[in-house]
Design a protein that fits this description.
205 residues; alpha+beta; 5-stranded antiparallel sheet; 4-stranded antiparallel sheet; 2 helices; elongated
């Protein structure tokens, strides 16, 4: 996912503050010029109105640039940090209280499951191939959290690696998933004689 600058970043705040100060200075300078023109020329009311309109348009352009630059209109979620994030499902015996919240078939020989630990309040994804994989990187799974977009695959630290030749399943690390957070499991399985993959996703839970 493309990285969007976080407007909460202190460097972004300093840059934003500098730009606003610069904007204020520009407004004062231009307003002073407008007022000077008005007092010198008794018929300068139209000129004053035109210049004030121009200043207003300039303000809108600069503010629009600030919104685009610092992502003020994106409502970007701040990344959450929880002690269970990125841990193996077997950490702290979370897997022992696992239940399957949803299961979706990817194709006729593979499916993905959304796992949830009732004790740890964590979620992870698991993909299963119903026969031993016949080549490497045949299947993979991904878990993603709704509130901040944090995601892990089987290859992430805490997972057990993608499904390679001779294997039948893999799981991802966990994300903390206590309400109001929700998580979704995603699974892919390679299409034979192709570089493409079939894909399936579970519900959000």
């Amino acid at each position: 996912m493309p990285s969007i600058p976080n407007w909460l970043d202190p460097r972004g705040i300093r840059r934003c503050s500098w730009m606003l100060k610069y904007l204020s200075l520009c407004i004062l300078i231009n307003l002073n010029k407008c007022l000077s023109s008005f007092y010198i020329n008794k018929k300068g009311m139209n000129l004053l109105n035109k210049k004030l309109k121009l200043i207003g348009q300039s303000m809108m352009l600069i503010l629009s640039s600030l919104i685009i630059t610092f992502g003020l209109g994106n409502h970007q979620a701040v990344a959450e940090t929880h002690s269970y994030d990125g841990k193996s499902p077997y950490y702290n015996s979370c897997a022992s209280s696992a239940v399957t919240k949803d299961k979706k078939w990817i194709d006729s020989v593979s499916y993905v499951e959304l796992k949830f630990s009732t004790n740890c309040k964590t979620a992870w994804a698991k993909v299963t191939v119903t026969r031993p994989a016949i080549y490497n990187h045949e299947a993979d799974a991904r878990i993603v959290r709704s509130t901040d977009g944090k995601a892990y695959t089987c290859n992430s630290s805490g997972g057990n690696g993608v499904v390679n030749m001779g294997q039948t399943s893999c799981y991802t690390p966990m994300v903390y998933d206590l309400d109001p957070r929700k998580a979704q499991a995603q699974g892919i399985h390679a299409i034979p004689n192709s570089d493409a993959y079939n894909k399936a996703v579970t519900i959000w839970y």
